[in-house]
Amino acid sequence: MVTWKIYKSKYQAWNSVAPKYAEKWVKSNDYAIIGIVDAVCNDFDGGTTLLDYKTSKRYGPYLPEDYYRQLIIYAFLYTLEMGDMPNFVGVNYLRFDDTFFVKVNQGVLDEAKETIKYVHNCLKDRMEVEENYELKKLVMPDLSDKIPEVTGK
């Protein structure tokens, strides 16, 4: 049950829910990853919500998988760095004034950790085998007519 506080002014009410951070960098050297959370907000009940703002189009009435992965990784990094697990992470589509939230729990944090490990392992495997790299012929443009001749005396 949420216990509602009574504020003496609209400014006091705003300050209780105003973002704690704007563009909070979250990182982990152990996991070699960094992210930038657009806003860290206090909820009325004292919880924390992380928001990522999107100016792109909305893909429908669901949260795209890549946005979901981004959000849970932000929650994981924030928890590691701050020692406090956020209650929610969300994507706010600014053009549509619409937000999709993900409830954060230990299972979500474990999923984020496994996702990070999986990506690192894929990159490591790819880097170890030269055949995994696509070779393309580099074509240099002819710039001879663009470079002025320099004459020295």
What would you say about this model in short?
With 153 residues, this protein is an alpha+beta fold. The protein has 3 helices and 5 strands. A 5-stranded mixed β-sheet has the order 1-2-3-4-5.
**What pattern of helices and strands is seen along the backbone?**
HEEEHEEH
Q: How much helical structure, as a percent, in the residues?
A: 25-40%
How many DSSP H or I helices?
A: 3
Give, in spatial order, the strands making up the sheet with the most strands: 1-2-3-4-5
Gap from first CA to last CA = 87 Å
Overall average residue pLDDT = 83
Question: How would you describe this structure to a colleague?
Answer:
The protein is α+β, with helices and mostly antiparallel strands. It contains 3 helices and 5 strands, in the order αβββαββα. A 5-stranded mixed beta sheet has the order 1-2-3-4-5. A hairpin with a 5-residue loop joins β2 and β3. α2 packs across α3. The longest helix is centred in the C-terminal third of the chain and has 23 residues. The protein is extended and about 80 Å long. The chain starts with 9 loop residues before the first helix and ends in a 25-residue tail after the last helix. The model has no long low-confidence stretch (mean pLDDT 83).
Architecture blueprint of SSEs:
Elements: H1 10-17, E1 19-28, E2 33-42, E3 48-54, H2 65-82, E4 88-93, E5 98-103, H3 106-128
Parallel strand pairs: 3-4
Antiparallel strand pairs: 1-2, 2-3, 4-5
Helix pairs in contact: 2-3
